[in-house]
Structure formats: structure tokens, C-alpha cells
TrEMBL record:
Species of the source: Streptomyces tuirus
Lineage: Bacteria, Bacillati, Actinomycetota, Actinomycetes, Kitasatosporales
Top-rank lineage group of the source organism: Bacteria
Residue intervals passing through the bilayer: 35-58
Key words of the record: Membrane, Transmembrane, Transmembrane helix
The protein's name in its UniProt record: Uncharacterized protein
Length: 80
């Protein structure tokens, strides 16, 4: 099974947008009152936070990968 790399920025964005959806679903279902203007700062702030997390994740990965060296030639274990 192929594994994918974790992308925390997308995780944060998905969590914030899910929270906004839950807030308005609860309002539509009559569980609580959510003012209409709550979505703007919630979504905007969440997307800015997700962008910052994605930026930091990219910087950390780029710094970590810069210290690694790769060789294209097969080593002694790969010869057959």
C-alpha cells in the first residue's frame, strides 16, 4: 500500500471548514442560534492559519531534506 505524506495545512483547513459546517447545521436544525456573520472570521482565520501551518511545514521539510544526500548509482548490495 502506498503511503502519502501528512499535510497539516490541509488538516487544519478541513477541520475549520467542518466546524463552520457543523455550526450552521446546528443552526438549521434548531439546536442553537448562529449569527450569519460568524462564518466570515471563522473561515478567513482558519484559512490563514492553515496557510501558515502549510508554509511552516514546507520550510521544515525543505530544511530536513537539504541535509540528505542521494546517489543514483546502485551500491554494493544492489549489484546482481
Amino acid at each position: 500500500m502506498l503511503r502519502h505524506e501528512l499535510q497539516p495545512g490541509k488538516l487544519v483547513a478541513g477541520a475549520v471548514l467542518t466546524l463552520a459546517g457543523v455550526l450552521y447545521a446546528g443552526d438549521a436544525g434548531g439546536a442553537w442560534e448562529t449569527p450569519w456573520f460568524v462564518a466570515i472570521p471563522l473561515v478567513t482565520g482558519g484559512l490563514c492559519l492553515a496557510g501558515a501551518v502549510a508554509f511552516l511545514t514546507g520550510r521544515i521539510r525543505r530544511r530536513r531534506d537539504a541535509g540528505r544526500t542521494t546517489t543514483d548509482a546502485p551500491g554494493p548490495d544492489m549489484a546482481s
